[in-house]
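Shipment paperwork, digital attachment
Item: protein structure file
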Amino acid sequence: MEKLPSKVQKILVPYISKLVSVLDDNVVSVLLYGSVTGEGYDSKHSDINVAVILKDNSIRALKPALKIIRDGLKHKITVPLFLTSEYINMSLDTFPIEFIGMRETSMILYGEDILGDVNIRNEDIRRECEYQLKGKLLTLRQAYMEQGLKNQSLEKLIKTSLRSLFPVLRNVLRIKCDSVPPLDKREILRRVAEEFDVDTNSFLEVLNDTVSDGRIGGQSAELFIDSFLIQLEKLSVIVDKL
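Attachment content:
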């Protein structure tokens, strides 16, 4: 925990101590994961993500932690994932992107390293990448038809969509290159463009845009979303054939 920013340590030490105390011997492991464990952490915008592996994650077993979780929300600690080893093992093929991302950014705060030896198959990763990309295409088109007359709503939609796409883009690279992909968002976009001949300039413009004015890259969000969707469509076809 010494590697974490001092402000995060100050928040987490009492939080984890109280959590382990009330859940007692039901706790197998507590791990920290996500941007907070790396260089991408931003105290103004980043949440603190925690996973708690338990022997029993029934509502009855979780109830003693309710007040601690509520207090943690005030310090940007999201509601932890309460998992069991059994759930993890039977869900690796369902949520491979989430579990491999958790494993690669995790820091053990208490107990065992539950994710260290799990086997996550590339085919399961590819399948979830395809599902996420094709699902994003459907929802973005639906959202455009609902909000297309409101440029600021469209701008927010596009930015939110890109944030949720980065884990997918990382893992498309993982499959293609058979290696651990970068975490840096700009490097991810550079590598995707290089490996798949996809124009990621529209993605980069979204990433660089910090002003909420209904425009991205100098043009209205309504005009911009078309080029954004074209590149998403191209990526979905590529992933389908991987």
